[in-house]
Write a structure and sequence with these properties.
- The complex is a heterotetramer, with two copies of chain A and two copies of chain B.
- By secondary structure, chain A is an alpha/beta fold.
- Chain A has four helices and four strands, in the order βαβαβαβα.
- In chain A, α1 (about 25-35) links the parallel β1 and β2.
- The N and C termini of chain A lie close together (about 10 Å).
- Chain B is built from three helices and five strands.
- Chain B has helices at about 30-45, 50-70, 120-125; strands at about 15-25, 75-85, 90-95, 130-135, 140-150.
- Chain B has a five-stranded antiparallel beta sheet, with helices on one face.
- In chain B, α1 crosses α2 and α2 (about 50-70) runs antiparallel to α3.
- The N and C termini of chain B lie far apart (about 40 Å).
- The chains are: A alpha/beta, B alpha+beta.
- Chains B and C meet through β1 and α1 of B and β1 and α1 of C.
- The complex binds adenosine-5'-diphosphate (2 copies).
- One adenosine-5'-diphosphate binds near residues 69 and 117 of chain C.
- One adenosine-5'-diphosphate binds near residues 69 and 117 of chain B.
Chain lengths: ~110, ~150, ~150, ~110
């Protein structure tokens, strides 16, 4: 995670549950961009996300880019095997910071 | 009108029809078909992980029909045929949308980190063959995809 | 032959087609459709437990077509249409087997502990309405079943 | 469980996994009847059974009746919520002895 500007601030946590897919992409996009707009680092908790497709990935990429251009970062937490396979397929597993759980993510950020 | 027979697969004559799914091209229908695609892929001999990848590829192809095929024109019908072939699975996806120009369906470049253009890239990465054809009687499109067992996904 | 439209539900005009499944009347196909039935029932507003009961009822009706409808005659096609109605779910099950005599489809007596005759008993216990009709154009059968939300199963 | 004839003998355990349905009924029936033929009490472990339908229930009823007419009994172990709902629907939840796990079943039998 980017430690540069706001090391003292808690990250915003966005929890995505169920299918992060074409049907839910509009809601997911809004949740992520709203979190990014707070200006802090964002952690996306995927522990309850059962399925993710290219529409979900597109939302994550857009939010990551918005976060980084604002000097913050966006990390993924508790990525399931299915989600990791999709991230790897998209060659994005090295682009997003990925953490086992919120505690690990917060420690990495501190 | 009711079809009393399966679509006949043009490319693989020996393919056995396992399941055909008809649904409206609408984003909220995809959750209804994913588990059936997975179970069918498992029946064709794929392991869990590969079956899950096949679900993604087929789902992405359905999304393209919803978003680009029918798109602004509103909803139409999608027919997804799943067949067991000697080699693995044959997927036939039929729509009644305007003809797709296959040369315009370009997966994104590998190192291109942008939202979008991921769907067709996933499809080509996951499946072994992907072919756009005109639909029977010149109506709509027929996307044929195959995936072979015994290969690392 | 390909159907570009859904079967039109005769009984509930306002019912919205969600998914239509076409498959061969064969015991090993049922595992391919159960999860889709469950997901569709959930989309119609049923809780997990009731959705699971609806899966059982529809599965049993498919089994009856496989075992009694086509039976010794071998495999035929089954078309399962799932519709969202104002009241809940409408299920339409079409086959091309000989006409069923509805008076011969008798669920077993309640206190009868025997193997058999359980399927049609489950169907009637779970669903709110169950109606055998002749198929369109006098071919085969059309079993219409409904289940309403807001009722304990 | 019937304690009458063979109190000293371990019950035969049959483990049913996956779908106990029309497709698998012939195999399930054979497994159950083979176990009953051993003459001991039978415990059917359903912990890995993900789905059961009328065909599966019919196999269980047939095996139960064969067991009882041979002076033994047949009990069910680790019945899932789905399976219990089907047993209740068939009014069979009071017909089969039902146990939480093998240990409880064996204790009940001792
Ligand atoms: N079924 C289709 N009908 C029409 N155009 C399509 C279809 N599938 C793909 N395309 C075209 O190919 C492009 C790439 O598709 P895709 O990789 O899925 O990315 P995206 O959907 O994000 O644009 C689309 O933008 C569209 O122009
Ligand atoms: N689709 C069908 N076609 C013909 N006969 C049927 C059909 N469904 C049910 N039946 C008749 O109704 C009887 C009861 O069915 P069911 O309760 O499912 O018990 P089982 O399948 O164990 O006989 C069957 O034995 C059969 O004679």
């Amino acid at each position: 995670m980017s430690k540069s500007d706001k090391p003292q601030q808690e990250p915003s946590v966005v929890r995505l549950a169920g299918s992060v897919d074409l049907e839910h992409a509009p809601d997911v996009r809004k949740m992520l961009l709203d979190a990014v707009a707070l200006g802090r680092n964002v952690l996306v908790d995927l522990s309850a996300a059962s399925y993710i497709d290219s529409s979900g990935i597109a939302c994550l990429i857009e939010a990551l880019q918005k976060a980084r251009s604002a000097g913050a970062d966006l990390g993924l937490v508790a990525v399931s095997i299915q989600a990791m396979r999709v991230l790897e397929l998209a060659r994005l597993d090295m682009v997003f910071p990925i953490h086992d759980d919120i505690a690990a993510a917060t420690a990495a950020d501190a | 009108m009711t079809s009393a027979s399966f679509q006949v697969p043009a490319s693989e004559d020996t393919a056995e029809p396992l399941l055909e799914l008809h649904f409206t091209a609408c984003a909220d229908r995809l959750k209804l078909i994913r588990d059936s695609i997975r179970a069918t892929a498992r029946m064709c001999g794929f392991d869990d992980g590969t079956a899950q990848s096949i679900v993604l590829a087929v789902d992405e192809a359905c999304q393209n029909i919803i978003v680009h095929g029918y798109g602004e024109r509103g909803e139409g019908i999608v027919i997804l045929g799943l067949y067991r072939s000697d080699a693995g699975i044959l997927v036939r996806l039929r729509d009644f949308a305007p003809r797709v120009d296959p040369t315009k369906v370009k997966p994104r470049a590998l190192n291109d980190v942008r939202p979008g253009k991921l769907g067709s890239y996933f499809i080509r990465e996951i499946m072994d063959t992907v072919e756009f054809r005109p639909g029977p009687e010149g109506k709509g499109n027929l996307l044929e995809m195959t995936k072979h067992t015994g290969e690392p996904q």
